[in-house]
Amino acid sequence: MQSKEAVNISEVCQQTGVAAVTLRAWERRYGLIKPKRTPKGHRLYSRADIEQIKQIVSWLNRGVAIGKVAGLLATAEMMPQQPIKAETWLAVQQELWDTLITLKPRSLNPLLDKLNKSMPFVNLCELVYQPLLNQFMARWQRRPLGYQLEQQLWQQCWQRQITIMTLRVEKQKSHGHCWLVNIDKQYAALDYWLFYSLLLQAGIQIHAVNQLEDLNALPRLKKSLDQPLIIFGDHKIATREVNQLMKANALWQQEMIAIGRVAEIHSGAFANMAVDAVRGDASTCWQSARYQAWLARLVPK
């Protein structure tokens, strides 16, 4: 008989923030975390397994390569007290930078595939992707020759990642559904792809609307599918668009939230309209207590 404390992979993902694909990769490729199985082959994780997963994440955060973690766990190595090794993640950022700048999609796609399976996505955002995006933005603002090719390649690679993650989510038990509407018009905000990925890695099925130009159309989404609404934006919007969001908020009420730098730019207006809003980059918004409380209230676990 299985212990009552044993939980399935879906519950482990919720407790630890580690995606199912990552847990399976750790088990198959590196011999980490070997859960028991039900007669039908489904994984069951004990409390000890969950604690070990958290320990693995701590090692990875400090720059230890995933291939070396098994040896550390086997020797009962104590968790390091020193801070995260920045040079490890700087090397990862540099590899991504070089691959994108030299326009090598055949190398960039496998690199992102490997990274996104290696550890919790929110940690990757914080340690690799967000700092890298800041560097890219600084470069692209200078408009070097061919910078638009770099932007398009980066976007195409992340669209591919979204497709892969979406297919995985559809094969698993869903933890909820939501609308995700990007209101940036000129181009897809780089943080938008990261936040989209964070939702997918959490097992949430998304109905996405990218670069919506007419916010008056938002009520049609409510009529189509009555689901929570996340508004994502990284740029300033016109006063009339702020008012359109206020009308949408009247429809969704506590089931709508604004995410991204748009929440910071229009913080006063959103506060006056009682629009729930969380400011900052993708990982900052995701980890904020306010957003997590919103998500817990509206998305069943």
Structure report:
The protein is an alpha/beta fold and 301 residues long. The chain folds into three domains: 9-74, Multidrug-efflux Transporter Regulator, Chain: A, Domain 2, CATH 1.10.1660; 86-163; 173-298, Rossmann fold (3-Layer(aba) Sandwich). Helices cover 59% and strands 8% of the residues. The protein has 15 helices and seven strands. The longest helix is centred in the middle third of the chain and has 25 residues, at 147-171.
Quick synopsis:
With 301 residues, this protein is α/β, with parallel strands linked by helices. Helices cover 59% and strands 8% of the residues.
Task: Set down the secondary structure blueprint.
Layout: H1 9-16, H2 20-30, E1 36-37, E2 43-44, H3 47-61, H4 66-74, H5 86-101, H6 105-118, H7 121-141, H8 147-171, E3 177-182, H9 190-201, E4 205-209, H10 218-224, E5 229-232, H11 239-252, E6 256-259, H12 261-265, H13 267-272, E7 277-278, H14 282-287, H15 289-298
Parallel strand pairs: 3-4, 3-5, 5-6, 6-7
Antiparallel strand pairs: 1-2
